[in-house]
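Pilot study result, target chain (303 residues):
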Amino acid sequence: MCGIFAILSIDQHKVDVNVFEKMSNSLIHRGPDDYGYVFFEILGKQKILVTNKIYDGLQIHKYQGVLAFGHRRLSIIDLSEAGHQPMCNESKDIWIILNGEIYNYQELTIELKKKGHIFKSKTDTEVILHAYEEWGTDCLKYFNGMWAFALWDMRKKRLFCSRDRFGIKPFYYYFDGNKFVFASEIKAILQDQEIRRVPNDGRVYDYLSYGYLDHTEETFFVNINQLRGSHYLTLDIIGQDLILNIHRYWDIKPMEFIENNSFEKRFLELFEDSIKLHLRSDVPIGTCLSGGLDSSSIVCVAK
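Predicted structure:
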């Protein structure tokens, strides 16, 4: 499952390491196997502090603007230390934290190696790093999977965050123009006492009256939104300003239905291929079997 979280602030005094540790602890259930943190100076010399411990003596108060990345890992692919996050590229100028899986990572690894990329792990996380180096934000078009990730590009001073096509993996954020906070769960964001807990009455009403949930980017809390499925955001640092932009990168394109006899065969091909990709793992895999047509079909094909 994994948990990701971060704080970006132009004012370094807005990043409290004790709050950041509370954010981490609130997500421990999502990633009990490993954890890690990295702190970036985002306005000055772009110093980097990598640590597995958070303590009051961290010298980030001397930074000119701070971005703090945190990760709680549930190990699935490449259980070695090579899969530790936050993860960086060879030149240490692009960093990533990921919650999710890229199912076609092996095929993408082969393609990227042909283009000259060198891998230090067998993880799907590293595939995202090299895919971004190769294709930029267009890398999203190549991924088959479920994900929520954040990538820091030090060269461009750009935070690039994405959520998978159907919003399977969560991504919530707060932004007030000077401070950007995101996490896999809202309760991690609310560890920051500067972020007020104000109910969003409109969305609460939608849920209690109609059962609507996740039908907009708004949440039950004022000023805490979700990055919607099939969208990505960029947060660019330009001078002393934070410029947030949100883009849609995918949508369903309806096609005219032309009846023929190949649909059953084609569906089975796609279904079996999907199950095979989902079964890629370095740990045992289980499934939820309710006895319905969908879960029964998945279990039969997996077996």
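One observation from the pilot: The helical segments are 17-26, 105-114, 124-135, 186-189, 201-210, 263-278, 293-302. A full batch analysis is planned for the follow-on phase.
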